[in-house]
Design brief:
103 residues, single chain, mainly alpha
C-alpha cells in the first residue's frame, strides 16, 4: 500500500465514520462492563453480608451476581459482534471498494 492510497483511505468519510463509531461503541461497552465489574467488587468489599445472603441451598446472591456478570459480558460481546457484522462490515467494504477503484 503506497502513501497516496493510505492518505485517500484516511480522508475517506466512510473511514472516518467507521473509526468514530467503532471507538465510541468500544468505549461505551467497556465503561458499562467496568461499572458492572467494579460495582460487584465494591459489594464484595463494602457489603459482604449482602452478597452472602443465601437464596436456595448454598447458592448466594454473590454467586448469582457473578454468573450475571459473565452473562452480561457475553451479551455485550454479542452486541459488538452484531454491529461489526452489519454496520462496520458495510463501511469497510465501501472503503475497500473506493480504495481499489482509485488505483
Amino acid at each position: 500500500m503506497d502513501e497516496a492510497m493510505l492518505k485517500r483511505i484516511e480522508s475517506d468519510p466512510n473511514f472516518i465514520k467507521l473509526v468514530q463509531e467503532r471507538s465510541s461503541l468500544g468505549w461505551t461497552l467497556s465503561i458499562i462492563m467496568l461499572i458492572i465489574y467494579y460495582g460487584f467488587i465494591a459489594l464484595v468489599a463494602f457489603a459482604p453480608s449482602l452478597i452472602a445472603v443465601k437464596i436456595a441451598g448454598s447458592i448466594t446472591i454473590g454467586i448469582v451476581l457473578g454468573a450475571a456478570i459473565i452473562l452480561i459480558s457475553i451479551a455485550l460481546t454479542g452486541v459488538y459482534v452484531m454491529r461489526a457484522n452489519t454496520d462496520y462490515d458495510e463501511l469497510t467494504a465501501a472503503i475497500v471498494a473506493k480504495a481499489k477503484g482509485a488505483k
